[in-house]
Amino acid sequence: MALDERRLAMLREMGVPFWRPLQLPDAGAPVDAAASGRAPASDASQPGIAPAAAVRAPVAPVAPAEAPAAAARLARPAPLTERRPEPQAPQDGSRMARSATAPPPPPTPTPTPAPAAGEGAANQNGSIASAVIATLDWPALRATVASCRACGLCESRHQTVFGVGHPRSHWMIVGEAPGEQEDLHGEPFVGPAGHLLDNMLRALGLTRAEDAPEDQPPLEPARQAYIANTLKCRPPRNRNPEPEEMRRCEPFLQRQIALVQPRLILAMGRFAVQALLRTDEAIGRLRGRVHRYEGVPLIVTYHPAYLLRNLPDKAKAWEDLCLAAQTMETLPPR
Fold this sequence. Notes:
Blueprint: H1 3-14, H2 33-36, H3 67-75, H4 92-101, H5 130-133, H6 138-146, E1 171-175, H7 180-185, H8 191-203, E2 225-229, H9 243-260, E3 264-268, H10 270-277, H11 283-286, E4 291-293, E5 296-301, H12 304-309, H13 314-330
Parallel strand pairs: 1-2, 1-3, 3-5
Antiparallel strand pairs: 4-5
């Protein structure tokens, strides 16, 4: 067996794939390693070691009869792998087309500006926010009360009953709700009950008038009284005020007290006492002592309309007026 055949047999036993040219060159002729494609053997004198140039790219062993076909396959260029084109960014035209079909973004909510005070600054139910009322001056407060529709009393009223008197009076009289005459005139405490109240104030040297007659000297706030009601609208048929009606109207009275800054408050009637003192106790148990409304001395007494129906209690009301006058004298000067 020739040397090359022995080497090939050893390669087969070792499982090393190889290929053999169609015609082998003469063993005695010199072989150019570069032309034959084989590298010089590292150690050809050692048996059993195949030259490194004999190992090529892994191919299946071929028989001598298949050598031409194998050579042709090896000479054939490897097939090119088809490469799919990479996705490209859409052009401006397609981007515009897709943006045209895409749903529009949700609209950005626009904050609603707060309504101006005194010009319809009302909630959906018609009530005015207490925080808004607490910032109003006299003209704005009067206009807001006149346009109020916070409760059902606005449907039956002729007009609102705001208040009367000097805006910085030392005395403040708080009544209950307007009656028929108050609803017609737009002023609290008119008619028989109003006349009785004027007599009671006159006995203390007070007046509800805001200005003195032209032929008299100006009035002093210490001798004046500001008069307001708990409700600004008359309940139908002079019925008792409902709790919701009082709650809706309470911020107006609170703002009036804050603007007047009275030195003493005279609460007349059960509903006025409930609104200011937050109590359901009877007037008979509350009168005769000094209460406080946000630090201001408060005296409880009967409503003039009640006194007209219960004449014996006028003496008790006079005692209450005397207590109010004594309390005022003990207060430090403003």
